[in-house]
């Protein structure tokens, strides 16, 4: 696969510092093209984190973020990021980020950074029954011959290689109607060594498929007529560093869906079983006739 999509992501994460220093730090960034014209949520999260990272000392490492999607973003327009330096303590720093287009916020996010210390340590083990990524088909193979702009974008323009276990739910939901799935992911080329770029890129990729366990549980494929899905919020905890240009396993599950909303959570592991991050997201999930999918 061409590395051009990864180069595009890196360019998107290369924000411009406007030099404005009123009460907040102001950055600007461009948006990636999307076939539907709306900004990809993972993009604006990753950019917001880069903006926040640019305002903290290098020895303070991102460990958590919580964000709310407020309005759809326009992928044809740049985004302005306003960073509030909420707190700088002895060990922790907090930053608030508002992402704006046309003077209105599209995302509100708060992130926390910490100096590195030693302490108690444990983690949940990685599942042992997930097939290796090399044994699973690339999205390009799954969508071969589907001449739809969204399908072509998923197959050719994503900066990450995604391999689904069980099979993807783009066109149909095969097998048991279960509320969990796993996705192997890896950047399509070599990333720079900057750890903050890897963290931001992981946040970007964490938004690709997290709501899919909700759909899988009810047998709803992405091509279902009238299906509407939109992220409402996104939370992420960064436990340990890992490179995103090496295979990572994203284990996902949905504990609940009700009222046109669904909740999903996920855990990200390195191939050798180190827990890298934990993610949670609630989304709007609407189908025309919900009773058909009970």
TrEMBL record:
The keyword Ubl conjugation does not apply. InterPro entries: Acyl-CoA_hotdog (IPR042171), Acyl_CoA_thio (IPR003703), HotDog_dom_sf (IPR029069), TesB_ACOT8-like_N (IPR049449), TesB_C (IPR025652). The keyword Repeat does not apply. It comes from the Bacteria. Residues 31-113 form the Acyl-CoA thioesterase-like N-terminal HotDog domain. Residues 172-284 form the Acyl-CoA thioesterase 2 C-terminal domain. One of its GO terms (biological process) is acyl-CoA metabolic process. It catalyses: a fatty acyl-CoA + H2O = a fatty acid + CoA + H(+). GO terms for molecular function: fatty acyl-CoA hydrolase activity. Keywords: Hydrolase, Lipid metabolism. Pfam families: 4HBT_3, Acyl_CoA_thio. Belongs to the C/M/P thioester hydrolase family. Homotetramer. This is Acyl-CoA thioesterase 2.
């Amino acid at each position: 696969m061409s590395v051009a999509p990864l180069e595009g992501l890196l360019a998107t994460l290369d924000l411009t510092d406007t030099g404005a220093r009123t009460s907040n730090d102001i950055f600007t960034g461009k948006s990636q093209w999307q076939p539907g014209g709306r900004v990809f949520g993972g993009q604006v999260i990753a950019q917001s984190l880069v903006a926040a990272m640019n305002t903290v000392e290098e020895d303070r490492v991102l460990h958590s973020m919580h964000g709310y999607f407020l309005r759809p973003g326009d992928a044809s327009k740049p985004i302005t990021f306003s960073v509030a330096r909420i707190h700088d303590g002895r060990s922790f720093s907090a930053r608030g980020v508002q992402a704006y287009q046309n003077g209105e916020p599209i995302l509100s996010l708060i992130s926390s950074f910490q100096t590195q210390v030693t302490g108690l340590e444990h983690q949940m083990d990685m599942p042992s029954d997930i097939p290796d990524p090399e044994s699973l088909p690339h999205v390009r193979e799954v969508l071969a011959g589907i001449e739809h702009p969204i399908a072509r974008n998923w197959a050719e323009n994503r900066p990450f290689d995604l391999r689904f276990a069980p099979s993807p739910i783009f066109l149909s939901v095969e097998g048991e109607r279960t509320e969990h799935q796993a996705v192997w992911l890896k950047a399509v080329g070599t990333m720079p060594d900057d750890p903050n770029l890897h963290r931001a890129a992981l946040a970007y990729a964490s938004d690709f498929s997290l709501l899919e366990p909700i759909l899988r549980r009810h047998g709803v494929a992405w091509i279902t007529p009238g299906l509407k899905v939109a992220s409402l919020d996104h939370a992420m905890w960064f436990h340990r560093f890992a490179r995103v240009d090496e295979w990572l396993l994203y284990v996902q599950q949905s504990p609940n869906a009700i009222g046109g909303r669904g909740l999903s959570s996920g855990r990200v592991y390195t191939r050798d079983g180190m827990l890298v991050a934990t993610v949670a997201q609630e989304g709007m999930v609407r189908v025309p006739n919900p009773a058909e999918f009970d």
